[in-house]
Amino acid sequence: MSGAQVQVQTAAAGFHAGLAAPGQQRAAAGGEAGIRRLWWRRLSLSAFALAGLTVIVVWAGAAELLRAGRLESVLASGWAQLAAPGLIALVVAAGMAERIWPAEPRSVLARGHVQDACYLALHAIVVIPLMTLLSVGAAALLSDHAGWIELHRTQTWPAWLLVPVTIVAMDGANWLAHYADHRLGWLWRFHALHHSQEELSVLTSFRAHPLMHTTGFVLATIPVVALMPGRAIAPVLITVYVCIGTLQHANVRWTFGPVGRVIVSPAYHRLHHAREDQGINLGVVLTIWDVLVGRARFPSRADAAGRTGLAGRPVPVEQDAALPLGPLLLAGQLIEPFQAQR
Ligand SMILES: [Zn+2]
Ligand SMILES: [Zn+2]
Known about the structure:
The protein has helices spanning 3-17, 20-30, 32-41, 45-68, 71-82, 85-100, 111-145, 159-183, 185-195, 213-227, 235-247, 266-272, 288-292, 327-335. α4 (45-68) packs across α7, α5 crosses α7 and α8 (159-183) packs antiparallel against α10. Helices cover 61% and strands 0% of the residues. It is built from 14 helices and no strands. The structure holds zinc ion (ZN) (2 copies).
């Protein structure tokens, strides 16, 4: 969290906790202008700024595709990559593995599972088209305004070298975006929803605020535009990448053995979801970035059943039995980052 953010949030907390009465007096004295001031103080302007940035990138993507008459076909291919039969089969298989070898035994209809199923529906309806337009929009904006990043020299590289290098660089950009989510308070407000899950399962991969994806997609597009200008990574490779990123939330103790030193395993990622400290194991698919910056902690099988969620429940969660389960709570969880922190 940045210092400025802490100051703003501390000021807001002080206002809500102890200064409400004088504030109310000022509002009464200042009439309508005072009331308007109080209303604005209840909103997080940085959240609206991120929403505005997302609209700009999505707009650029949609405009580019409409100009080329390819909006429908590109949205369909986005679906084919991000909801591929292979990914659906993986989610089903992981769900079965969770029943047979659970890290933490729980009912199939646990509140966390039901709520995350709502996020799966949101992902299919809203997030997949959003991700597709973010990728196209970021690539279009970068090509138009930062064409100098395109390395035409790499075009002579053979595909067996260029594609893996691009995917590794893309994973590094995703790591950086994830690191920023944890370091910058205004991004953390959106990422916290993902970490709020106290009953981790394979469905938690889809439990994310739609606006959480903006920085990751913009950053991850940079190496793609730089290394493979005008070309695309084969859809099957994107699907494989997404599959590995999805499996890591499964409620199993798998460490992947020696492969888990390089590829993020469910046990490795579960340590990142630990209740008290989320500063380790930030890797999205590869662990190398965590190793390079000293943030990797490789798990034992015993680590794979640690408690998850956020201490103090800063985000409303379904494990609070007083809250309604389903779309109403989902709406409350999505609105939460737009409220100034109390
Ligand atoms: Zn995280
Ligand atoms: Zn996660």
